[in-house]
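To whoever picks this up:

The nightly regression suite flagged Gfo/Idh/MocA family oxidoreductase as changed. Nothing in the input moved, so I suspect the structure step. Input below, exactly as stored in the fixture:
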Amino acid sequence: MPATPTGAPSASPAGPDATAVPRVAIVGANGHGRWHRRSVAPLHAAGRLRLVALVDVRPIEDEPAAPVPPGTTVHTDHREMLTAARPDVVIVCTPPHTHLPIALDVLAADADLLLEKPPVLSTAEHRTLAGELAATGRACQVGFQALGSMALAQLSAALGQGRLGTVTGIGTVACWQRPDGYYARSPWAGRRSLHGRPVLDGALANPLAHAVMQCLAVAQTVTGRPVRPSRIELERYRVRPIEVDDTATLRIVTPDGPPIVAAVTLAGEDFVAGEVIVTGTAGRAVLEYPTDRLLLPGDPHPRQVPGRRGLLENLLAHRADPTGTPLIAPLARTAPFTAVLEQVQRAPEPTLLDGDLVTVTGSGPERVVTVPGINAALRRAAGQGALLSELAVPWAVPPARIPLAAQDD
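Regenerated output under the current build:
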């Protein structure tokens, strides 16, 4: 496909032309990038943006729900694309260890960012990216789409109204399954590092990162300020010969807020989409964050809360009105997540669970390994604010306890 873009050059850092249709590109257009293509397609069709380029090192996969529009150019190198297509907004959906260098190239090309989670892998990388955002005046939205949930907004409002009393704990539980094929999807899958660079494709850092981030968002609502972790306590387990966790309990301790416990697995017996449990002196709330179902004190059962603010639409609105439309998930909001993630990366290797501790079903790429009793154990951990080792789980190991220095945005 020819790479001959047309249209006006991108806006300067002083601010975009509010009358121009933003030119959008996607770097990492296959895999999860297809989800972004489906999100972009109706906005392109409505004339709210123009999809000008796709980038991937592999041939672009077909996506029936989002066919490539005429005139959209295809590239294998993001730098070539930035020069040729001159986008105003770039969606980056590549492996986590590639995020920072690509993001810096995007900012140097005077474009704004929608950067998939995890945005970066260390506080040093976070500071580097934040510094470039300040220097260029560009915007960066991070792909924690659950932060745009109206259910989260209602939970936050209930906390502000005191409906739960004093919040004493925040927990999250999620039990998913991933077959062997999941870990064969790419060279970085299941890896702690690749070619000397951190990767961290573990349950806490990647598929269930939203669970951790939602808890941090709730904690910020409770205290009125961004979370500053002072210590994390971490137990990591794995049911395959991978380098990262597929099962974990994590406690985040802060100097001025309730403790946060994440209890997650990719080796679950039954599917638990993901619940954030907020416990207070006057009651308990449960937010199923992937489905936007919310249970507040006094409710007879969970109810669906419709409505999510799309991150790309919010970014476009912010470009048009930076002071009147704040970003939903700016980079600064993710600083506590990155601080925790960095310590997960540095923690001891996950403990292998095998033999009689696991159940194996299926074969080949569809082979699934589960841990009997894991769902009930993780529910107890999230509900009680405990780690698995504190619940007398027989195979649990003592946690790594890691103090954290004060973090700056």
